[in-house]
Amino acid sequence: MTVGEGVVLNVENLRMRYGSTDVLHDVTFQAQLGEVLVLLGPNGAGKTTTIEILEGFRTRSAGRVEVLGIDPAHGDEQWRARVGVVLQSWRDHSRWRVRELLAYLGSFYAPYGTADVERPWDADKLIEMVGLTEQSNSLISSLSGGQRRRMDVAIGIVGRPEVLFLDEPTAGFDPEARREFHDLVHRLADDQQTTVLLTTHDLDEAEKLADRILILAGGRIIADGSADELSRRIAGEAEVRWTCDGQRFVHTTTESTKFVHELFQQHGDRINELEVRRASLEDTYMTLVRQYESGRNEADVRTLEEVTR
């Protein structure tokens, strides 16, 4: 793989083995400056392991990994100041007040500011960004679970990271907080050119946030593309819904455009409330994972048959 200008994450043939068990198999992908990547996959697929290797918290077994042009296994303090991390579980700083802690943590990033990137974020602006203005002087122990999760996000981005890793970031968020978080991610990517890699089990969230989606199954990348590009891989049917003379109808077809054209030729302006529903990201995700697991199971059976001959 050739690393081009603007590549922030470069992963080639990444492998991870625990004992005799391989949990990552030749994982390969790139991420560009300001791109939002969402990593999807069933539990045990290797999502958290992949992110921990990119963060420099876990040593890979083989392959090449570069984050901001540096191997995370050898990243120094200068490199780490450019990387933000939001873990699955919130950190317990219960005796601190919100603004007090963010200002304190931010002070550690000040020596790593540059002419292009001023570090850290102003504490009050950061608090406003994550929706904790009313709690800025509150003890962290008094925050609700969702507010503590917002505090986690604030801690992860206090140093104005150029790349941000988010592992299940909206766990515990209510719908309003989740929407505000999505806006924040878009602002970081669009305005600050922050590259974001996150994991989530919320497929609706993935579709709203992702420029690209990576689907990981069995320790392998089985799909890589936008939600629309992935749905085009599924040679499925579309569901057409409409009303005619007050009656509701539903029809499933593989040629929705032709069907709708013929529908209007037959009924004209008597057609109302027309809707064509194609495969959702959830449909696509489930189909691709099942196809992979079915193929893997067939391969396992063939291997067993060869061994027992």
Considering the chains and any ligands shown, give keywords for the structure:
Rossmann fold, 10 helices, disordered C terminus, single chain, 3-stranded antiparallel sheet, 309 residues
- How would you sum up the global shape? globular
Q: What do we call the CATH homologous superfamily of the largest domain?
A: P-loop containing nucleotide triphosphate hydrolases
Q: Count of DSSP E strands? A: 12
- Strand fraction: 25-35%
Major sheet characteristics = 6 strands, mixed
In the CATH classification, which architecture of the largest domain applies? 3-Layer(aba) Sandwich
What is the CATH topology classification name of the largest domain?
A: Rossmann fold
The succession of helices and strands, N to C, reads EEEHEHEHHHEHEHEEHEEHEH
Overall mean pLDDT score? Answer: 87
As a whole number of angstroms, the C-alpha radius of gyration is 23 Å
Distance between the termini: 40 Å
| Overall structural domain count | 2
CATH domain class name of the largest domain: Alpha Beta
Oligomeric category? single chain
Give helix % range: 25-40%
Which residues form runs of ≥5 with pLDDT under 50? Answer: 299-309
Spatial order of strands in the largest sheet: 5-6-7-3-8-9
Number of helices: 10
Structural class: alpha/beta
